[in-house]
Amino acid sequence: MFTADDFGMSPSLNNAVALAHCFGVLRNASLMPAGSSFAHAIALSRQFPTLCLGVHLTLIQGRAVLPPGRIPHLVDSRGHFPTDPIQTGWRYFYDTGLRAEIQRELRAQIEAVLNVGVRAWFLNGHLNLHLHPSLTPLVVDLAKEYGIPALRLSKEDWRATLALAPDGPLPKVAQGIIFTILSRRARRLAERRGLVVNDHLFGLTHDGRMTEDYLLRLVPRLQPGLTEIYCHPALEVDPALRGAAPAYRRREEFRALVSPRLLQALTERDITVTDFKKVAQAR
Fold first, then answer.
1. Cα distance between residue 118 and residue 112, in whole Å
2. DSSP at 132
3. What phi and psi, each to the nearest 5 degrees, are found at residue 5?
4. Core-most of 16, 71, 101, 119, by most CB within 10 Å?
């Protein structure tokens, strides 16, 4: 199962999502409600009703949906969230007074998607912050409240990732272990509320580098169960995308998603390409 995150961040990314869905293996896209090209993403999605859409909840490195006056302790005067993941993570953990504003903003982001007539099938978070110990219960409750049937778990087999891409081993191991622990707790909460969750994931510790070569070497290592592979494709790297993640190999990720070799490799191993909607409806 292939997902593109940040749908709505830029026209270049949006167009890559549309083409990768039409001509490749992409089946899911995570909408960023406060993205500067959110309206463009919605307009595109109406042309492709088979594209399964979810909400990419954002509480870091992005803009809020609500005005700053409604969430004054979460954003700056321009409505921007903090950018430092470690400092922000600790703040969300210790400052329990933020919970009401966080819930208000997350609710607004979900409603921004639903109010334009989109059926949301899954939730995840920018930088996977939806798995933060203080945030996961809120996210799970909101999924249940709004009838959103699935949640991303970021449990990556970091040993497989290291075997395929041995660069930066310490951060990959640390990230892999931390998110495995967080995903274990989130799975219990999600399954208790009847939500669909993925069994495996790739794209966390090697983010922005889901190239054709990497994916072709990954396919033989895929395990039974529901695997989500997420990426950030684009046709061109415009200023918005460069500012968000300058090291991401977005054009290579797009080429991977439309690669006939990748589709052939999946077919040869009898791996079904699916989406969260089909999985949820099959239950």
1. 9
2. S
3. -90, 170
4. 16
> What kind and span of H or E run contains 41?
helix 38-47
Region of residue 61 (phi > 0: left; psi between -120 and 50: alpha; otherwise: beta): left
Look at residue 94 in the predicted model and tell me its pLDDT: 87
CB 1 within 8 A of CB 198: yes
| The one-letter amino acid at 100 | A
Residues pairing with 150 in the sheet:
122, 196
Length reported for the chain: 283
Spatial CA neighbour of 231 closest among 73, 25, 77: 25
Structure tokens at 154: 């970021």
Residue range 45-67: mean pLDDT, rounded: 97
Residue 97: pLDDT over 90: no
Rounded Cα–Cα distance for residues 141 and 50 (Å): 27
The architecture in CATH of the region 2-281 reads Alpha-Beta Barrel (3.20)
Strand pairing of 200-202 and 26-31? unpaired
In the chain the first and final C-alpha atoms are separated, in Å, by 17
Structure tokens of 31?
């909408």
Return all residues near 247 (Cβ < 8 A) that are at least 6 apart.
208
**What is the C-alpha to C-alpha distance for residues 226 and 222, in angstroms, rounded to an integer?**
10
- Asked if residues 123 and 152 have their Cβ atoms less than 8 Å apart, the reply is yes
> What are the residue ranges spanned by the domains of the chain?
2-281
CA 58/CA 127 separation, integer angstroms: 8
Contacts of 113 (CB under 8 A, 6+ apart): 31, 33, 53, 55, 120
User: How remote is the C-alpha of 110 from its chain's centroid?
Assistant: 14
162 burial via Cβ count (<10 Å: 0-12, 13-18, 19+): middle
How sure is the predictor about 93, in pLDDT bands with cuts at 50, 70 and 90? confident
The verdict on pTM exceeding 0.90 is: yes
Which of 24, 25, 31, 27 minimizes the C-alpha distance to 7?
Answer: 31
